[in-house]
Input
Amino acid sequence: MKNVYFLSDAHLGSLAIEHGRTQERRLVRFLDAIKHKAAAVYLLGDMFDFWNEYRYVVPKGYTRFLGKLSELTDMGVEVHFFTGNHDIWTYGYLEKECGVVVHKQPLTTEIYGKVFFLAHGDGLGDPDPRFKILRRMFHNRFCQRMLNFIHPRQGMWLGLHWAKHSRMKRADGKELPYQGEDKEWLVLFTKEYMKTHDDIDYFIYGHRHIELDLKLSRKSRMMILGDWIWQFSYVVFDGEHLFYEEYVEGESQP
Output
């Protein structure tokens, strides 16, 4: 039985990450290391810091990453790409050219007999009214069409600088630490969701850039994946056990 891998939040191309090329190469080496062990890889959002496809143009760069995704899918490995709040604007290129399955909504799926609820995590319980407004705009089809009326040079510049500004508003460009069960909105959302969906074994999210492994009931467990900027963390399911790993080159055995 082959493993299933979950990771998120690489934010490739970010203008706020000085080690971006090294970061991409590290991600590609990890994917290369697991390609013969993986039945599926789930990328749970914000793999790009900003991604917008035009009809005949896609963003510059990411060739190592996109090439490795294509190699995996050519080998028969399922690759699932969840749009996050930074890489919403995908319209078919990743599916057609790289063979990935794109998910724009949370997914409930069965893997090796266990039920998983998978999502990037943005929009799930977040109380910030400004974020809610922005999220509605970003997902609005008319607004998406308006963005694509902008020339790619200006459109990509705008998106990448907006993403940089958003990150640099935080101390050291990093997320707040874990706020506790009574304040962490993804935990609060999950507990509420469980009341009407008691069949789910595992809830897995990205978005928050923290590593969290929380037992919510005798059956249900929730995990937040960390990131591929500083932590290089991922989750593995081998059909029986679900566990965290961190990719340390020369030491890890993914």
Observations:
- The mean pLDDT is 86.
- Residues 152-168 form the longest helix (17 residues).
